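dumping this here so i dont lose it
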């Protein structure tokens, strides 16, 4: 019995050492350009760019397979930073050259119409919707990114998007949250 335990321990140590060596020897470095592009994006994971999230979009932009102006929540500010980062010509998001970004929108649930199906909760990428099955749901305005993924998911059309007026109490810094330097 003790010899079997010792054999298992020895086998575990040997396999652990082999895996440790393999992880160092065959390490795959990430593309630093993808990392910089992803850091510029707002991380809402909304899919409005046509990709499953911010990482796949960043990979496509870095590979030249996607345009820099597809991030709707980031707006023209992100498009300008991506153009600067990649050294390409700036293209406005949705032709909004003068506005800088899409106005912030927040989802609103008509509580009298909500049937509590939880379909909106399942698609919300930032957990901004609270509620329980067969009970009314509500939206938390602060975490809501206005990605509009909940609107088509609702079977009773009780969700609408409402623009948030910017003033001193509702203004938040636009993306990205750091200063980018041109890559040589």
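and the seq i came up w/
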């Amino acid at each position: 019995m003790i010899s079997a335990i010792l054999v298992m321990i020895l086998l575990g140590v040997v396999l652990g050492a082999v895996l440790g060596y393999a992880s160092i020897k065959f390490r795959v470095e990430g593309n630093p350009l993808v990392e910089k592009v992803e850091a510029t994006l707002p991380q809402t994971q909304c899919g409005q760019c046509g990709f499953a999230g911010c990482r796949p979009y960043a990979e496509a932009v870095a590979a030249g397979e996607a345009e820099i102006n597809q991030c709707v929540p980031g707006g023209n500010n992100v498009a300008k930073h991506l153009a600067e980062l990649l050294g390409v010509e700036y293209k406005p998001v949705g032709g909004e050259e003068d506005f800088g970004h899409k106005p912030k929108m927040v989802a609103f649930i008509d509580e009298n119409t909500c049937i509590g199906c939880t379909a909106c909760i399942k698609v919300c990428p930032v957990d901004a919707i609270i509620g329980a099955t067969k009970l009314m749901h509500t939206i938390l305005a602060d975490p809501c990114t206005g990605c509009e993924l909940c609107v088509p998911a609702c079977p009773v059309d009780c969700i609408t998007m409402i623009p948030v007026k910017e003033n001193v109490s509702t203004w938040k810094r636009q993306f990205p949250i750091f200063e980018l330097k041109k890559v040589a």
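Residues 2-25 form the longest helix (24 residues).
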